[in-house]
């Protein structure tokens, strides 16, 4: 899908280092498309928070995918258990604060 002005997407909030506020998806509306050829999916957003609206320009896209890792990993059964990264290159799928992504279809 291509971003376009007026589309509703999810913005991932940063959260706070102390954990007072957690990283969460928020509804957002695309307000501008950037013309940066190195970042074609970078957009401007109006983020709709429960306590107000936050306007943010040049927000990068992140689909939240992790890395599958090497197929011959001896610890593949442990992926996703207590650790988020493995020597085989596997990383857990996770959203990144300060980015946007398409809403999941339900």
TrEMBL record:
It comes from the Bacteria. This is Uncharacterized protein.
């Amino acid at each position: 899908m291509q971003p376009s002005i007026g589309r509703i997407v999810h913005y991932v909030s940063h959260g706070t280092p102390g954990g007072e506020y957690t990283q969460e998806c928020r509804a957002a509306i695309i307000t501008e498309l950037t013309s940066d050829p190195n970042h074609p999916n970078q957009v401007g957003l109006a983020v709709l928070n429960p306590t107000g609206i936050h306007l943010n320009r040049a927000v990068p896209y992140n689909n939240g995918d992790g890395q599958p890792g090497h197929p011959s990993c001896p610890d593949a059964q442990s992926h996703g258990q207590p650790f988020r990264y493995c020597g085989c290159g596997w990383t857990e799928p996770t959203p990144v604060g300060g980015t946007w992504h398409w809403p999941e279809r339900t």
